[in-house]
Every structure is written in C-alpha cells, then in structure tokens.
UniProtKB/TrEMBL annotation:
It comes from Mediterraneibacter hominis. This is NAD(P)H-dependent oxidoreductase. It comes from the Bacteria. InterPro entries: Flavoprotein-like_sf.
Amino acid sequence: MGKLLIINGSPRAPKSNSKKYGDILRKYWGEGIDVYSVISQKHEEVCKELGKYGDIVFVFPLYVDSLPAVLTNFMKQLEKIAARKENDLLKNLKVHILINCGFLEPEQNDTAIEIFQYFCAKNHLNYGMTLKIASGEAILTTPFAFLVKRKIKRFVKDIRAGKSRTLDISMPLTKKVFLGASTKYWLRYGEKFHTTEKQMRTMKIEDE
C-alpha cells in the first residue's frame, strides 16, 4: 500500500472543521501521509505527484447540497490527468471521501456524494470508502465527539483493508432537541463577530 494523500477541500482550510477531521484521520493512519489544501492553488504540481500515493481521502464540507467550488477546481485538474490515456499516475490510486454537513441527518450529504461518485466513474477512478458526518459543525465540541473519532478509526481500518462501503455518524438527538441546541450554538457563534440574531435571520448579507 502506498502513501495516503489527504485533500482538504474546504474554503476555510486552515480553520475548518475539515482540517479537524483530517487531523483525526492522520492520528489513526499513522505514518506515510501528505496533506494538501485546495486553497493553496497548486493543483497541477500536486497532480503530477499522484503516482506515489495508494489512496486519496477528500475531506470537505457540504456546500448547498454540492461540493465547494474550490474543490471542483482541483477536480478539473485531476480530470485532465485522467484524460491522458498514456498516463499511469492514477492507475493504482483509490479515492475515498469524508464529508460533513451541518444538518442532523447524514443522508443530507447524499447528493454531493453522488456527484463525486459520478466524477470518479466518468474518469475511471477507483472509488472506495465514504464517511458521512452529520452535525459536522458542532459535534466535535459535544459529548458525542467520541462517536465521530470511533467512526473515523473504522473508516481508516476499512481503507487499509481495501473495502468499499459507506459509513455514517450523527448525534443521537431528536430533531426538536437538535434545533434548540443548534440555535443556541449559532447565536453564540454570531456573538463572536458582534452579529445579532436579527441580523443572522435576514436575507441581506451586506450593506447597500
């Protein structure tokens, strides 16, 4: 098995939850890992080195039921590599995704996953494991953080075993409890940036 490459597909890469999940993944994987954040815009350089990896894990947040635009820019470069039939860089590579969303239900990630899987099929990329994390914005700060860590540990074991299946994790809460807790969370988050509840509820995003 070759090295592992973690692709952080978040626009907020250095301060993102995707980085936190990637760090947990690194802990359980051990040695032989490289990390690339798509916001660094070195796509061509990274793609030229893909031959030294056995697995890639794309770690990213759900954006409007889809993929972050900064991630799709990297995927376009990857598509160019895949289109070169004489190129063996991707021959032995297996692709996996770890996606998180702010919703209670992990299946909210499904549309984005289908888009990614279609991309892999179209470009003849070997697709492996999927991990869907719900309540991804907050779960690591709750008593349920151990559930995520345990699931990521299983995710790593399955990648090493060459498996191809879907895992998911969410907080064991009712929708009513989740709504109340998430509202408090976002109000506290808004206070950090001096944003009121009224401002957060408006559709207006900047002054005219």
